[in-house]
From TrEMBL:
Gene: Eef1akmt1
Single GO term (MF): protein-lysine N-methyltransferase activity
Catalytic activity: L-lysyl-[protein] + 3 S-adenosyl-L-methionine = N(6),N(6),N(6)-trimethyl-L-lysyl-[protein] + 3 S-adenosyl-L-homocysteine + 3 H(+)
Identification of the protein by name: EFMT1 methyltransferase
One Gene Ontology biological process: methylation
Length: 213
């Protein structure tokens, strides 16, 4: 009898291990979602969608930016997150703290957050609901979805409309001059990290004395 196994292409043990790891991670993630303690606001409850040019911050970076936002907003402060959902999710984890937060985001999956979700398309920077009053946020955190001057200019219109003054911008190092021109922000020492490494060097910019230096 011929050995039938000869024709079956064998996966290398390396590929197999990688596949198993991938499936295991997926199962764990799904398991996390269904287990009782799952927090619908935690990072990862909505996963990044590269088609929408989404890249989540690492947990550490999201926490750091969320802390900075709370400090900058002050007691009872209002925080707006523009295209920065992982910071928003971190802020939501601090439930019951003395601040309020809105998420302006193109990804409609975030509508699970109810009233706090505002559909946002940077191509229409001032197409905002009437209840979002001008200069009604103590700080605006923004991470324009694309590294282009046009995207930054348009997002800047939204930022300037919403903020009482303070701005925390995360974007590529290459946008430094444009960011200064549009928003009067300067680069901080703090380097934001992503859960997946991006090809572009990423930086934080602020226009006030922050804890990020």
């Amino acid at each position: 009898k011929m050995d039938d196994d000869d024709d079956i292409p064998q996966l290398s043990s390396h590929t197999l291990a990688a596949l198993q790891e991938f499936y295991l991670e997926q199962q764990q993630r799904e398991g996390m979602k269904t287990s009782q303690g799952f927090n619908q606001y935690s990072i990862g409850s909505i996963e990044e969608d590269w088609q929408l040019s989404q890249f989540w911050y690492s947990d550490e970076t999201a926490s750091c930016l969320a802390k900075e936002a709370v400090l900058a907003a002050g007691k009872g402060g209002r925080i707006a997150c523009i295209s920065a959902p992982s910071v928003y999710q971190k802020l939501k984890e601090q439930d019951g703290e003395d601040f309020s937060v809105c998420i302006l985001e193109y990804d409609r999956r975030f509508s699970v957050y109810g009233q706090e979700f505002i559909f946002y398309d940077y191509n229409h920077p001032l197409d905002l609901p009437e209840n979002l009053l001008p200069h009604s946020f103590d700080i605006v955190i923004a991470d324009p979805p694309y590294l282009s001057e046009e995207c930054l200019q348009k997002t800047a219109e939204t930022i300037k409309y919403l903020t009482k003054g303070k701005i925390l911008l995360c974007t590529g190092a290459v946008m430094e001059e444009e960011a200064a021109k549009q928003l009067g922000v300067k680069m901080c020492r703090f380097i934001p990290k992503h859960s997946r490494n991006l090809a572009n060097e990423f930086r934080c910019y602020v226009n006030y004395a922050s804890g990020l230096d």
